Amino acid sequence: MENQEETENHDNSRDKQLKNWRANSSNHLKLCKPYPFEKYHDSLRYIVNSILDVTESGPLNLIEPCHEYKAFINTTDETRMIKFTSEVIRFGAACMNSRTNGTIHFGIGDKPDFTHGQVLGVVVEDKEAYVDKLKSAIYRYFEQNRKQDAETCIKPPRFVEVLSRDTTSYNRYVIEHKWSRFLKGDYPEGLWIIKKIKH
């Protein structure tokens, strides 16, 4: 009975978030460029409800990075880190198997609930927790012969601040995680296989 009540409360909370975002967005959503792929110290910020001017895509070539969006709102305290690490690892393995660069964006909406690429942002209480959980996930999800390679390709999460429309603090971030392929000739042979993990 308690589990059912928790599920209903969580669903109601999600519905409220969707209504708020829809109410705060207008028909005049502005386009913005994504954070440069290889940059970590630029002062770029996102404005809530603006639209990232890049579509989700698979590997087009070995240079242009692919992108994937996750609203990352349908989570609880118990499931948030599990969802974050599993999505990053899954996306990263797909990038490596496709021999391409890629960025997965948490806090960016997609259809049908949002406009494709809509900046939502997520509340981040402890940035180090994301970094630490991701490091441990590498060792749990990848086979022994892939762990060192994964540490080479995986980059630390980047927390891009989201501002309100009047450019004041919105207390949210877009969490971006980049996978960077090996240089030509250094790429390890074989597929990257993700182990099934019981949480």
From TrEMBL:
<protein>
    <recommendedName>
        <fullName>Schlafen AlbA-2 domain-containing protein</fullName>
    </recommendedName>
</protein>
<dbReference type="GO" id="GO:0005737">
    <property type="term" value="C:cytoplasm"/>
</dbReference>
